[in-house]
Amino acid sequence: MSRLGLLVAFTIAPAAAFAHAGDDHGVGYPWVWDWWITTTLLLTLLLYAGGVSRLWRRAGTGRGVSAGRVALFAGGWLALAAALVTPLHALGERLFTAHMAEHEILMVVAAPLLALSRPVGAMLWGLPQSWRRGLGAAAGTPVWRRIWRGLIDPLAATILHGIAIWAWHVPALFAAALEDEGMHALQHLSFLLTALLFWWALLCRRGSRTARGTAVGHLFATSLHTGLLGALLVFSNRLWFPDQAGEAMLWGLTALEDQQLAGLIMWIPACLAYPIAGLALAGLWIAESSRRRAGGARHAFGTR
User: How many separate domains does the chain show?
Assistant: First the structure.
């Protein structure tokens, strides 16, 4: 489990880091074929597909990595491509609503699907054996294990994800990200990495019997604070990011209306991902508790 950070950092994350490496994508809203984006996405896909193929050849189809997890990875990878390669990305540089949609696809679509797919094992099998051994040795060091346990602590992951969301919507930082390529790369990288940690910590981390209940609380708390940020954007009568609305008029929107629509995307559809996941976890938590009680009752009855 501790290998997630090592492998994902070298594969999935760089695509987001270089998602805005080059501001001029031509006239209109074309597909984006920036070298860093497409190469990283393709290498990630080839690494995962190669690992799954090798595992299935050795153990049998569906063994080692289930077909369901492959489907989850495919969905997450396609969501990344949709955010970073399609015309949505080029439009997002000129329209705040599209930019918000791009960010939310990274954080509440791609990240949870990739986390649930647990891609690390398959990706390791896609590497040469000597590389697998080296990564395994690095991931097993006491220092890395302590760091990783701290990062995937549910409270820590929730706080880090919340800081990333709020900090990059401070007008000064957002403006800096629009003006500077490196800052824009850092913005996307922090959104994706903290989202991966957040969803991994709450959906995939093994823990005590109360772990699901704790995860539900963190999901609903995240829904509340991201919904608050979206509502602030919707009801504000002041333009927070004047440099972002370069083409709002072409879409029949004022700059303020563009901001309000972007806030609405964050407030309603994007925020629904957190309570939906929370309700699903709550259902699993209740079902597990019921099974334990039923098992305890059968055991007590059988010992009489």
Answer: 1
**CA distance linking residue 110 with residue 77, whole number of Å:** 7
Q: What is the pTM of this model?
A: 0.82
| CA atoms of 189 and 211, how far apart (whole Å) | 28
Name the residue with tokens 């925020």: 271
In degrees to the nearest 10, what's the CA dihedral of 9, 280, 75, 185?
A: -40
**Rounded Cα distance, 209 and 121, in Å:** 25
Taking each helix axis from N to C end, the angle separating 255-265 and 96-104, rounded to the nearest 10 degrees, works out to 10
Closest CA to 106 of 70, 81, 123, 87: 81
27 CB burial (10 A radius; 0-12, 13-18, 19+): exposed
Q: What DSSP string describes 16-53?
A: HHTTTS-S---SSSPPP--HHHHHHHHHHHHHHHHHHH
Structure tokens at 244: 């972002």
Band of pLDDT at residue 6, cut at 50, 70 and 90: very low
Q: 281 or 3: whose pLDDT is higher?
A: 281
Pairwise CA distance, residues 124 & 120, whole Å: 6
| φ, ψ at 170 (rounded to 5°) | -70, 125
What whole-number distance in Å separates Cα of residue 135 and Cα of residue 249?
A: 51
Range of the domain at 256: 4-302
pLDDT, tens digit, 9 for 90 and up, residues 86-137: 888 888 878 899 999 999 999 999 999 999 999 988 888 888 877 877 777 7
